[in-house]
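Design request, tokens follow.
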């Protein structure tokens, strides 16, 4: 029987490999998400942690939304995570369809949905022949999973995720 408990330690080789495939900005977002998960007492980094880091760190991510009020509403929901909204997630593993455990090739200490989003960001970068994923790549990958916590937060803040996904696809660098 496999252990379904989240791995809370770090595997340095996995972390180094991931870091080499991210832009400096996205690596900073990932670090912020890890710190937030630890501070909040969460067992794993989830997609809401990643969304929070993206919104706080990257002006291009904030520009993808419908103005300042929408971004402020999103940040408000994310900040409330540890004091009200999102408490139902505390102590649970985010699972948007994958088996709720870290699998080979996954990222230790990450929810399956967060690891899948990072894979999606890397795929998006590779599709444009880039070796490093950026913040917009991760935002697009987060929006692609309708069952993720990040999308739940987006919907609560009245973000039209279909419209956001279409906008991100139109703005995809290297596409005509």
């Amino acid at each position: 029987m496999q252990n379904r408990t989240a791995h809370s330690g770090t595997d340095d080789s996995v972390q180094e490999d991931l870091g080499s495939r991210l832009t400096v900005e996205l690596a900073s977002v990932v670090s912020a998400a890890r710190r937030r998960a630890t501070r909040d007492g969460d067992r794993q980094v989830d997609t809401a942690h990643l969304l929070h880091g993206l919104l706080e760190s990257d002006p291009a991510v904030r520009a993808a939304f419908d103005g300042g009020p929408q971004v402020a509403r999103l940040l408000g929901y994310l900040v409330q995570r540890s004091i009200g909204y999102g408490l139902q997630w505390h102590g649970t593993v985010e699972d948007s369809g994958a088996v709720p455990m870290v699998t080979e090739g996954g990222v230790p200490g990450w929810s399956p949905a967060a690891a899948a989003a990072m894979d999606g960001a890397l795929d998006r970068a590779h599709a444009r022949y880039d070796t490093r994923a950026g913040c917009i790549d991760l935002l697009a990958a987060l929006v692609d999973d309708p069952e993720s916590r990040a999308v739940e937060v987006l919907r609560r803040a009245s973000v039209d995720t279909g419209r956001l996904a279409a906008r991100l696809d139109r703005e995809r660098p290297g596409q005509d």
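Comment from the thread starter after seeing the answer: thanks! The chain is about 55% helix and 0% strand.
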